[in-house]
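Narrative of accomplishments. A recurring question from our advisory board has been how the design workflow behaves on a single, concrete structure rather than in aggregate. To address it, we present the structure tokens for one chain from the evaluation set, followed by the sequence designed for it. No filtering or post-editing was applied between the two.
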């Protein structure tokens, strides 16, 4: 007979997810595939600018996620798509090479932190 080790079932799920190493899953804005957050680039709307998120995904403002592939980035960086996903008018949208440069820097710092 299996015993329930948690008095509150709602709290038990959260506790078990921390024990198992839960990874948040997000959907790419362009291709709609679901991937772990660490594999995606987060774009956030701050003021009227779209910015590439920082290492810990802590930029304030509404955000969306994109695969680090050229095809996905090309589709996602279209003004209409971004405005719909971010629910905000976007006056400044970064070029594709700037987004990839930010992603590469993030990956390098992730590798450094993991060691």
């Amino acid at each position: 007979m299996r015993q329930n080790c948690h008095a509150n079932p709602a709290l038990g799920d959260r506790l078990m997810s921390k024990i198992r190493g839960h990874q948040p899953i997000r959907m790419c804005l362009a291709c709609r595939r679901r991937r772990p957050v660490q594999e995606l680039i987060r774009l956030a709307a701050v003021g009227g600018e779209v910015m590439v998120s920082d290492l810990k995904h802590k930029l304030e403002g509404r955000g969306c996620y994109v695969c680090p592939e050229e095809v996905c980035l090309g589709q996602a960086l279209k003004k209409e798509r971004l405005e719909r996903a971010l629910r905000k008018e976007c006056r400044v949208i970064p070029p594709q090479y700037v987004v990839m440069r930010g992603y590469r820097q993030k990956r390098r710092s992730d590798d450094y932190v993991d060691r």
